[in-house]
């Protein structure tokens, strides 16, 4: 049941400290701060290129993983939407690694892409939340996301557990390729082990996010901006908002702003900015300045330092805990989920069963 919570979605959002911790426990050794991947039926050290294929929210988890694997393992990664990949019939050199991400493990397009990759000599690894699912059974190896059953149609805890497992996988790949030093592995492992507690801190700010949501419920359009791994989090935030509140939302890589979407900015368009303090902070902060100068109502998600450094006058801001930039996307997923949730509640939509959507898309 929903327990004390009004909706399954809210219950599942609040389960995240626990389920992220469960996902971490499958691979993270807290004592020596290392990752142990399960034994795989192929040699990770021999992998030269990686493809990640998924749909919807799972695709955005894969989009974060592209940044991680490129950075930590220095392997080239392509991310594809399953329905585009399968009909493009792309050429593939043998011995690549293809990773499939699916909460349900039954998504038709993702399954078809898996079958295509197997026929084309790829090693196949799936990340699923349902262990006995078709995608898990048909791939050479499966990693479990350990989120427990997800009832709300809008994916929340499945997403953050996918990210958690993908971060561990990227670390394991970094060790296999030799690109990641033992010190760097230990640092990221420490940050990962602290992430459930940091998520719990953000959940305690639920009321503040509800207040921010009141100012967004009346909007017709909302823009989300982010850079680096903040970009897929912006995409996920926009998807969450449109799915459950029916407000039109779009996400852009912050650097794309001046290539078109800045024309949309006026004082009726809330602009949600994902901006942790990292090496790209200044770039995104200057985009915020451009939005504010055009009357845009910026909602700024950053940390204390990032908010203090910002000179632009934003409409509202929220300081999340400071974390290692590598793990920041896991943390910044939380406020965009809560924001979408509270906007939907303010609008009175059916949060757990949004119109026109099915939990598992087994037909294309
Ligand atoms: C969004 C959402 C969908 C799913 C997508 C893929 O909240 O739930 O976008 O992420 O349908 O589903 P799975 O992960 O089951 O393959």
From TrEMBL:
Lineage: Bacteria, Pseudomonadati, Pseudomonadota, Alphaproteobacteria, Rhodospirillales
Gene Ontology CC terms: cytosol
The protein's enzyme class: transferase
Signal peptide: none
Protein name, per record: Glutamine--fructose-6-phosphate aminotransferase [isomerizing]
Gene Ontology BP annotations: amino sugar biosynthetic process; carbohydrate metabolic process; fructose 6-phosphate metabolic process; protein N-linked glycosylation; UDP-N-acetylglucosamine metabolic process
Major localization listed first in the record, in broad terms: cytoplasm
Transmembrane segments: none
GO molecular function, one term: glutamine-fructose-6-phosphate transaminase (isomerizing) activity
Domain SIS: 40-179, 212-354
Gene transcribed to yield this protein: glmS
Described function: Catalyzes the first step in hexosamine metabolism, converting fructose-6P into glucosamine-6P using glutamine as a nitrogen source.
Domain of life: Bacteria
Organism: Paramagnetospirillum magneticum (strain ATCC 700264 / AMB-1)
Alphabetized UniProt keyword annotations: Aminotransferase, Cytoplasm, Glutamine amidotransferase, Repeat, Transferase
EC number: 2.6.1.16
């Amino acid at each position: 049941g929903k327990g004390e919570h009004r909706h399954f979605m809210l219950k599942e959002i609040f389960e995240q400290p626990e389920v992220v911790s469960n996902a971490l426990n499958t691979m993270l050794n807290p004592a020596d701060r290392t990752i142990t991947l399960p034994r795989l039926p192929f040699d990770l050290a021999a992998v030269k290129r990686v493809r990640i294929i998924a749909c919807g929210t799972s695709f955005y988890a894969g989009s974060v993983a592209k940044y991680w694997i490129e950075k930590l393992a220095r392997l080239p990664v392509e991310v594809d939407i399953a329905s585009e990949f399968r009909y493009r019939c792309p050429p593939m050199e043998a011995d690549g690694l293809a990773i499939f991400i699916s909460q349900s493990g039954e998504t038709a397009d993702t399954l078809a892409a898996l079958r295509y990759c197997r026929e084309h000599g790829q090693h196949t690894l799936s990340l699923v939340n349902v262990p006995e699912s078709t995608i898990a059974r048909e791939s050479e190896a499966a990693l479990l996301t350990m989120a427990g059953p997800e009832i709300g149609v809008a994916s929340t805890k499945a997403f953050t557990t996918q990210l958690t497992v993908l971060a561990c996988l990227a670390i394991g790949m970094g060790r296999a390729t030799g690109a990641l030093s033992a010190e760097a592995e230990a640092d990221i492992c420490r940050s990962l082990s602290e992430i459930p507690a940091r998520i719990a801190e953000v959940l305690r700010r639920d009321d503040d996010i509800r207040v921010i949501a009141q100012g967004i419920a009346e909007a017709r359009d909302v823009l989300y901006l982010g850079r680096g791994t903040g970009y897929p989090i912006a995409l996920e935030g926009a998807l969450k908002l449109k799915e459950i509140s029916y407000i039109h939302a779009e996400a852009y890589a912050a650097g794309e702003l001046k290539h078109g979407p800045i024309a949309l900015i006026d004082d009726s368009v809330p602009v949600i900015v994902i901006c942790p303090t990292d090496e790209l902070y200044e770039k995104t902060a200057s985009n915020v300045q451009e939005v504010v100068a055009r009357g845009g109502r910026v909602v700024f998600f950053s940390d204390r330092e990032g908010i203090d450094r910002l000179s632009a006058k934003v409409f509202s801001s929220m300081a999340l805990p400071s974390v290692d930039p590598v793990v920041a996307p896991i943390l910044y997923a939380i406020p965009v989920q809560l924001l979408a949730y509270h906007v939907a509640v303010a609008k009175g939509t059916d949060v757990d069963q949004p119109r026109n959507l099915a939990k598992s898309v087994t037909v294309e």
